Amino acid sequence: MTCTAKTRGFLALLLLLSIPTRCSSFSPSLFGPSLHHRHHTSITLHESTDSNGNQNQLTNAEISRYSRHLVLSDVGVAGQIALKNASVLVIGAGGLGSPCLLYLAAAGVGHIGIVDADTVDESNLQRQIIHGTSTVNVSKCESAERRLKDINPFVNVRTYKEEFTSENALRILGEGFSSTKAWDVVVDGSDNFPTKYLINDACDMLGLPWVYSAILAFEGQLSTFNYRGGPDYRDLLPTPPPPGDVPSCAEGGVLGVLPGTMGCLQATEVIKIILGKDKGLLVGRVLVFDAMAMKFSEIGIARLPGREKISELIDYQGFCAGPKSTQQNKEKQTISTEETTNPVGRTMDEVLVEDTAKSEEYNTILPIDCLNKMASGWSPWVLDVRLQSENDIVELPFTDMVVPHRSVRPDHIPLTGEILVYCKGGVRGKKACAQLVEMGVDPKRLYNLEGGILRWQKEVDPEMPRY
Amino acid sequence: MTLNPASPRPPPSTITIEVLFFASAREAAGVPSTSLSFESTDNDGSFNTKMLRTKLASNYPKLAALVQDEESITLAVNEEYVPYGENWELKDGDTVALIPPISGG
């Protein structure tokens, strides 16, 4: 037998009241069960679907699981069925994606997609709570899927173990969960500007709403973009900031719980969109959260007059690298290789920094060559261009000065003699060297430590900690 | 609220606004907020966001490289983003937030 959504809502309530039921009819025994009737009847229901393939009822197990939603009048049985039929794509199973995915699955969003090409690294676990120690080195898609299935086996998960790029974005967004219709809502769990613009433009082309967030240190931003013609990311930031101006979380650090807060807020927006509670959506407003001051501010944002609809996807790496480096991007195709051989948790934003640096003008030295050269008497002045907080974790023992790469100026270094510049992975060192050269320092004096302190640890001193 | 060059009454020569610094702007300024008084540099005595950017650049040298650049720091006046390319009028008592773009996730 089947029950309608309405009668099943009633049954849910009965379940909450721990009244044992038999679903066959509303017999008087339901309301006055005698003792020998006090057992839960197991009922098998036919799943029934409408013409769109949508389910229009909940099973008993779902009713039990979602009881706290079902008693909420703003969710209720109809809302829970809407969640069950909904499909949400989360791009990035990292700091933001982790809590968002967990809550979407727990809430009963029936079809969840995950895009992430990375594997779980130990340094992710401080904030990426969908993953665990047991899934270090496992692909993030797989790790996340396991956890989601454990939280809620009723959720269907589709994973994309690939980078989200201009080449695959429209396919991934457009095919949706079952390759029949686009995803209902998209969540931005990305950690770099190029991907945020890509999500924006692809969602604009397909008319999909998406929930934006970005985090750094103690601050987060949140908004719901492209919701029924509302403002989007290009109204907030029509032009990307100069490459290298904005640190990534790997470089600037992030309070672990911050993406937890922001990712939960993203999940809240997604659920409201699915439930059709659009009056209170963060449309035309950007929420700015300052965790240090524990303050939420709200900034109004309007659709820029004359902003045109996006008609095609572009090269977002080039777009965010600015006009100067587009040519260099075309010439240098070694970025991805360098990233895989030296995985230091860099994001695309940091890779861009590398592209814009004038790498050909100053010297580059491998850690092992540096060691050998020093053994034969080379004694350069050594400049650490990381943050002081990073230097506190670990440093090369012969470091003379610590100056963050953005602030490096010629008056920090001696007037004569050779300078060894190092950072964590070699990228900021390049930037610092290029900056010093631009400010008039003779490039022949400068040596950037290739691969930074991480490569030094790997190839020279394995006893040093990695971070 | 757009720039309105024709003001019926002569505006005050100095205004005081509340400035809020976020993210890297806070780091560069060294404070989370400040109360800033400044004089108009326009002949008609009006005040605008462009003028404020110049004033902030001179008051906070470390902020100078960022604040003059619209891509690097977005301004919000009384909790409304100033759209890219626009120069908004400011008046005494306004609150202006400096919100640099962030991209972490």
From TrEMBL, chain A:
CDD domains: ThiF_MoeB_HesA_family (cd00757). One of its GO terms (molecular function) is transferase activity. The keyword Signal applies. Gene3D superfamilies: NAD(P)-binding Rossmann-like Domain (3.40.50.720), Rhodanese-like domain (3.40.250.10). Keywords: ATP-binding, Nucleotide-binding, Signal, Transferase. SUPFAM superfamilies: Activating enzymes of the ubiquitin-like proteins, Rhodanese/Cell cycle control phosphatase. The keyword ATP-binding applies. This is Rhodanese domain-containing protein. It comes from Cyclotella cryptica.
From TrEMBL, chain B:
Keywords: Molybdenum cofactor biosynthesis, Nucleotide-binding. This is MOCS2A. It comes from the Eukaryota. It comes from Cyclotella cryptica. One of its GO terms (molecular function) is nucleotide binding. Pathway: Cofactor biosynthesis; molybdopterin biosynthesis. InterPro entries: Beta-grasp_dom_sf (IPR012675), MOCS2A (IPR044672), Mopterin_synth/thiamin_S_b (IPR016155), ThiS/MoaD-like (IPR003749). One of its GO terms (biological process) is Mo-molybdopterin cofactor biosynthetic process.
